[in-house]
From TrEMBL:
Pfam families: DUF3362, Radical_SAM, Radical_SAM_N. PANTHER family: UPF0313 PROTEIN YGIQ. SMART domains: Elp3. Residues 696-705 have a biased composition (Polar residues). GO terms for molecular function: 4 iron, 4 sulfur cluster binding; catalytic activity; iron ion binding. Residues 202-251, 639-746 are annotated as: Disordered. This is Radical SAM core domain-containing protein. The keyword Iron-sulfur applies.
Length: 746
């Protein structure tokens, strides 16, 4: 601050990540956007949360504290899907874990309050975004309140949030009170009652779940978004344009039926105990994610309510370019020295070309955070970033590690009908089949790949983001381009499962699309004379998955000669649809009623470990667990050493180890756990019987002592050796022999 000549900061941002000035790190984007709008921004990275001292280092902010846990949810960052503690952190120098607290948004917010009372606190990022409503918390196994109540923050930003960020900051700088900023898109606040002039729809019961009210003739409205892309070939960087706060509204436009309408959800006190109403609430929430037609949501927590405004409108191409053309240094802060930050090492030569995903996978939170509408950068903006990496980033060898985003092949693939896009409430544009309105022409992506790899100094462009193969097969030319030029031997794709049961709860395509893609990929790889392979990813323990489903997947893996090294168990992240099914065991993808379809879920460490073991059927550590499961399922026919068998039978060595383990597991007998019958006697319960038993025991001990003495006198080699050993070591035999006369006297 002294070097910049600042006496104070307008905004101070607090993050749980190390600071990397790169557009893949949210805090860098937020800071650069505010800087472009003329605000003085300070960043406190990974502060010591045990006191308020670190939160006071930059002084009191003029406008507000902005708080985020970082690029990852702090709980997912700290714990595995089996709730085991992680000891590493990819967003920390040296990959050291424990540099941020659990539930970091709440902890950081409270420390900001302690540091400077009266300063507004705004929370955002992925952790706050996915906890904006009452949500199931996997780690405590209960439904928690909205993070706004726990953190005591003034406002919450959800999504990428450039629009609400700019609007709120400018209005606070103009002197408005944060309590008066109530209806800004992409924000959530705490209210005592509904906002004035808003009409409410009560959806606190199961009468009409998932259908709040009718949408009259949505396809007869005027287009709300421009689907035309303007391509230019100039590579000169234009002057960065500020992010537009909000698209202009037409003055005489007819009011739409969802405008100024809110949905009253079941209260927190209700959904924390009623799983059916929790599923109903989750279904409504996921139906209100389209910025073009979403209603506001209101949920009571005690005597107050959480008010969630509709999502912010997505950025247009020019605005995306403006955000990514900001002067990022693309390196970690110098304060970290030579310490490696694994997350940065992974993405330092990669480029984000788009945002959003309309796949709608139920286990993924991208839709809830970034939205379903694809927001793409221009080709020129992407080329400029490649050139910047080539010319400025240390260690660049000519290989771009990725041109992608949430999905590799959704660049510029949007709904062909702006009217339909603005009013659609489908949870997925590609499931159960690809929507007729969806554009599947990959030509813009192919053109981008070709232009990028022709740049001087660029040796190869790799595609590391996951390929949506059900889209790719709609354009074989894209598969050909991918196989010929952009695969480094292996290509990652994610079928996630092979069976219809779990796939229907994931909203993923069937294996038919996988086989079609594999056929094309193998064909074009062979034509190019390359040996290239598909690496499929699968999820174990996903809601809707039975033991039989996992067994079928294991058999498929063996038949196709896959031996997976890295596998994952389903991780119930907050607010995901799959998490709702895991918690409630109710199918919230359909109308929720008291008789809704039950969804089986593997719960508990043992059951989840079995499902994960099935994916690694070839690991000897899993043989015993899989064998036991096969016996329970009546599938002993899969135990053997033939090619048709899944696991080998139990070996003699395993049987011995099992027997030894069983003996080691026996409890030691003491006076507290009961002695063997030989020592207790027939009348051990009575007092006289117990005394008699003790006398008999002493007599037995005396007899044994006399026997040892006689044997020693006889000079038996074996017993003499034992007695000698006992004498030399002061062992029990000698002690018992010498003490017998005294015991007899007692």
């Amino acid at each position: 601050m002294d070097a910049l000549g600042w006496d104070s900061c307008d905004v101070i941002l607090v993050t749980g990540d190390a600071y990397v000035d790169h557009p893949s790190f949210g805090m860098a984007v937020i800071g650069r956007v505010l800087e472009a709008h003329g605000f003085r921004v300070g960043i406190i990275s990974q502060p010591d949360w045990t006191s308020k001292d670190d939160f006071m280092k930059l002084g009191k902010p003029n406008l507000y504290f902005g708080v985020t846990a970082g690029n990852m949810d702090s709980m997912i960052n700290r714990y595995t899907s089996d709730k085991k503690l992680r000891h590493d952190d990819a967003y920390t120098p040296g990959n050291i874990g424990g540099k941020r607290p659990d539930r970091a948004v709440t902890v950081y917010s409270q420390r900001c309050r302690e540091a400077f009372k009266g300063v507004p606190v705004i929370v955002g990022g992925i952790e706050a975004s996915l906890r904006r409503i009452a949500h199931y918390d996997y780690w405590s196994e209960k439904v928690r309140r909205s993070v706004l109540f726990d953190s005591k923050a003034d406002m919450l930003f959800f999504g990428n949030a450039e629009r609400p960020l700019v609007e709120v900051t400018h209005r606070l700088a103009a002197g408005e009170d944060i309590a008066d900023l109530r209806d800004i898109r992409g924000t959530a606040i705490i209210v005592k009652e509904a906002l004035p002039e808003w009409q409410g729809v009560d959806s606190t019961s199961l009468d009409r779940p998932g259908k709040i009210d009718a949408i009259p003739s949505p396809y007869q409205m005027e287009p709300e978004c421009d689907s035309q892309d303007k391509d230019t070939k100039s590579s000169e960087a234009p002057e960065a344009a500020p992010v537009v706060i909000q698209p202009a509204q037409k003055e005489k436009e007819k009011r739409k039926p969802w405008e100024n309408v809110y949905v009253k959800l079941p209260a927190y006190e209700t959904v924390k105990d009623n799983k059916v109403l929790y599923a109903h609430t989750s279904r409504i929430l996921h139906q209100e994610t389209n910025p073009g037609c979403a209603r506001a949501l209101m949920q009571r927590h005690g005597d107050r309510h959480i008010w969630i405004n509709p999502p912010a409108m997505p950025l247009e191409t020019e605005e995306m370019d403006a955000v990514f053309d900001l002067p990022y240094q693309r390196v970690p802060h110098p304060v970290y020295g030579d310490a490696k930050i694994p997350a940065y090492e992974m993405i330092r030569f990669s480029i984000n070309i788009m945002r959003g995903c309309y796949g709608g996978c139920t286990f993924c939170s991208i839709t809830e955070h970034e939205g379903r509408i694809i927001q793409s950068r221009s080709e020129d903006s992407i080329i400029r970033e490649i050139e910047q990496i080539r010319d400025t980033v240390p260690g660049f060898t000519g290989v771009i590690s990725d041109l992608g985003g949430p999905t590799a092949n959704m660049y510029r693939l949007r709904c062909k009908s702006p009217k339909a896009e603005a009013t659609c409430r489908r949870p997925s544009c590609v499931y159960p089949s690809i929507c007729a309105h969806m554009d599947t022409d990959h030509k813009p992506t192919i053109d981008l790949y070709r232009r990028a790899r022709e740049l001087p100094g660029i040796k190869k462009i790799l595609i590391a983001s996951g390929v949506r193969y059900d889209l790719a097969v709609e354009d074989p030319e894209y598969v050909k381009e991918l196989a010929l030029h952009h695969v480094g031997g292996y290509l990652k794709i994610a079928p996630e499962h092979t069976e219809d049961g779990p796939l229907s709860k994931m909203m993923k395509p069937g294996m038919g699309s996988y086989y079609r893609f594999k056929e094309l990929f193998d064909k074009y790889s062979q034509e190019a004379g390359k040996k290239q392979y598909l690496i499929p990813y699968f999820i174990a323990s996903h809601p809707g998955t039975t033991d039989e489903d996992m067994l079928s997947l294991a058999i498929w893996l063996k038949e196709n000669k896959f031996k997976l090294d890295q596998v994952q168990n389903f991780y119930p992240s907050p607010m995901a649809t799959a998490t709702t099914m895991y918690h409630t065991e109710v199918n919230s993808l359909r109308k929720v009623t008291k008789d809704s379809e039950e969804v089986p879920s593997a719960k508990g460490e043992i059951h989840r470990r079995l499902h994960k073991a099935m994916l690694r059927y070839h690991d000897p550590k899993n043989f015993a667990q899989i064998r036991e499961a096969l016996k329970r399922m009546g599938r002993e026919d899969l135990i053997g050493r033939g090619p048709q068998h899944l696991v080998p039978p139990e070996t003699a060595n395993e049987k011995r180890q099992k027997a030894q383990k069983g003996r080691r597991g026996e409890r030691a007998l003491t006076k507290h756990t009961g002695l063997p019958p030989t020592f207790q006697g027939k009348n051990s319960k009575g007092g006289s019987g117990a005394n008699k038993s003790r006398r008999n025991s002493n007599a037995n001990k005396q007899g044994r002592g006399n026997t040892v003495e006689k044997r020693n006198e006889a000079g038996g080699n074996k017993n003499r050796g034992s007695a000698s050993k006992g004498n030399n070591s002061g062992g029990n035999s000698r002690g018992r022999t010498q003490k017998q006369p005294s015991m007899h006297k007692r």
